[in-house]
Amino acid sequence: MKKDPVARNDLALLAQCEMIATNLPAYATALGLPATDLTGHAADTLYMRFAHTQYDRYGKVAQNWTSWKNLVRDGGDGGSSSAPAHPAAPASVPPAVAPGIVPRLRALIRRIKASGAYSVAIGKALGIEGAEEAAPELDTLQPELETAVAGDKVRIGWTRGAADALEIHVDRGEGKGFVFLAVDSVPDYFDTTPFPAASAVWKYKAMYRKDDERIGQWSAVVSVGLGT
């Protein structure tokens, strides 16, 4: 499985958009892309760079004015003795684009990859080939359980991850040791067994299942105290 080809971090996303804007014209004809795809993406990239620059500039101004406001209010040593400068107006403002740059980028990537001329080499040149995501080592998977009393039940918290289900065993302190309790496919599991009349400690352990087979390692044993 490959990772999402669209970068999530703002700066990485900007770099990716600029890489596509720079390199896509060389492949557009072969990929059968209309000119509007190129001009539209170029406009999105230019305006996103402008918006991020303004965000970064005003964020720093806001921090400086917060420090100045606190100094004016509370006094203290250090810091500037005068108010911060107001931010300068940008030298130029590119034409605004409609909201939704990332959805448009995803749609463009889908059109590129749907072309019969598309290749992994082109994808790498455009920065849209997601890296291979390593498959989890099933032999080492180990559930992490949490237990809590929820009304008249015991809640066993767990996460599914790469598994299909969780096989849960319980030791109710009756001398039987751990016995099978349930196979749960939707976290969390609720043990509805009636609480004992006397105080007791119930213990739980579990192992993941995939394709109806146990996988990985047993979880650490967790316990919950039940009082009268």
TL;DR?
This protein has 228 residues and is an alpha+beta fold. Helix content is 35%, strand content 20%.
List keywords for this structure.
228 residues; alpha+beta; Immunoglobulin-like; 2 domains; 5-stranded antiparallel beta sheet; 3-stranded antiparallel beta sheet; 5 helices; 35% helix; flat
Give a structural overview.
The chain has about 230 residues and is an alpha+beta fold. It folds into two domains: about 120 residues; about 90 residues, Immunoglobulins (Immunoglobulin-like). It has five helices and eight strands. Strands 3, 4, 6, 7 and 8 form a five-stranded antiparallel sheet that branches. α1 packs antiparallel against α3 and α3 runs antiparallel to α4. The chain starts with 9 loop residues before the first helix and ends with a strand.
Characterize the overall form.
flat
Helix content: 25-40%
Number of strands: 8
Helix vs. strand class: alpha+beta
Summed up, the helix count is 5
Helix and strand topology:
Elements: H1 10-23, H2 28-31, H3 35-74, H4 101-114, H5 120-126, E1 146-150, E2 153-157, E3 165-171, E4 179-184, E5 189-191, E6 200-210, E7 213-215, E8 222-226
Antiparallel strand pairs: 1-2, 2-5, 3-4, 3-6, 6-7, 6-8
Helix pairs in contact: 1-3, 3-4
